[in-house]
């Protein structure tokens, strides 16, 4: 049996591909509410609290499931703002039976599929 590592993570990052770094940064900064940490043409990082969103250049715009879920106080407004900024609708905000969230799904302008949620429980 292996002993636990003494090396501890410094951060956990969600990394999304970006075909157009400027467009991707603008979408997540100006529309989704993240703050810039640093921006380069090939790698950028944005933050919300301790969450780090990395954007990696070289994407081709293909639709890619990401597992990224962003919670808002008003998911209907976040969904509308995302669509107005070039996201594509997959699922409009909807509360499913037995779940304490309203869930919406969009494709960002880079092709990344993301969920937008609102806790209502």
Structure description:
The protein is α/β, with parallel strands linked by helices. The chain has a single domain, classed as Roll (2,3-Dihydroxybiphenyl 1,2-Dioxygenase, domain 1), CATH 3.10.180. The protein has 2 helices and 8 strands. The chain has helices at residues 21-31, 75-84, and strands at 13-18, 35-38, 43-48, 51-57, 64-71, 88-95, 101-107, 112-119. It has a 4-stranded mixed beta sheet, covered by helices on one side. A 4-stranded mixed beta sheet has the order 5-8-7-6. The protein is globular and about 45 Å long.
The CATH architecture can be named as: Roll
How many beta strands in the DSSP annotation? Answer: 8
The poorly predicted ranges are none
Q: Write the CATH fold name.
A: 2,3-Dihydroxybiphenyl 1,2-Dioxygenase, domain 1
Strand order of the largest sheet: 1-4-3-2
Mind telling me the CATH superfamily name? Answer: 2,3-Dihydroxybiphenyl 1,2-Dioxygenase, domain 1
Mean pLDDT: 96
Structural class: alpha/beta
Q: Please state roughly what percent of the residues sit in beta strands, choosing from under 5%, 5-15%, 15-25%, 25-35%, 35-45% or over 45%.
A: 35-45%
List the domain count as a whole number.
1
Distance between the termini: 42 Å
Number of helices: 2
């Amino acid at each position: 049996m292996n002993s636990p590592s003494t090396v501890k993570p410094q951060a956990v990052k969600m990394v999304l591909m970006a075909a157009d770094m400027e467009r991707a940064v603008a979408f997540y900064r100006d529309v989704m509410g993240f703050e810039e940490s640093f921006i380069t043409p090939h790698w950028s990082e944005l933050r919300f609290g301790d969450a780090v969103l990395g954007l990696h250049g070289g994407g081709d715009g293909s639709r890619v499931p990401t597992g990224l879920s962003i919670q808002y106080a008003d998911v209907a407004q976040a969904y509308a703002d995302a669509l107005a900024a070039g996201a594509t609708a997959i699922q409009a905000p909807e509360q499913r039976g037995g779940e304490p969230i309203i869930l919406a799904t969009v494709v960002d302008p880079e092709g990344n599929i993301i969920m937008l949620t609102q806790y209502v429980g």
